[in-house]
Amino acid sequence: MDAHRGRRYAGVTAEVHMNSTVKVILIWVLILVAAVGLYNFFAHRNTSSKTSLNLTELLNKVDQGEVTSVVVSGSNLTTEYT
Fold it and tell me: Which of 74, 71, 77 has the alpha carbon at shortest distance from 55?
């Protein structure tokens, strides 16, 4: 009977060790996801906002002197405002 208990105890120890390993892996995955999320948040924090304007709105801003530069790249216009 003691031998049977010994095997059962060894099985429980293996399960506890496996659960501990899974917990450690999950913690590292969560740390990695949090680190990537924080990097993306701070890396894109200072980028300028993108606003879509139609041509009439853009020309009105040019006429009002609000646009300092326009860069044409294919079918995209990138503007810099005063």
Answer: 77
- Report d(CA 70, CA 4) in Å as an integer: 81
User: Residue 12 pLDDT more than 70?
Assistant: no
Predicted TM-score (pTM) above 0.85: no
Where along the chain do its domains lie?
1-47, 48-82
Distance between CA atoms of residues 15 and 12, nearest Å: 5
Question: Is-contact 31 40, C-beta < 8 A?
Answer: no
| pLDDT 10s digits, 40-56 | 888 876 666 677 888 89
CB proximity list for 66: less than 8 A, separation 6 or greater:
81, 82
Hey, CA dihedral for 64, 70, 72, 75, is it positive or negative? negative
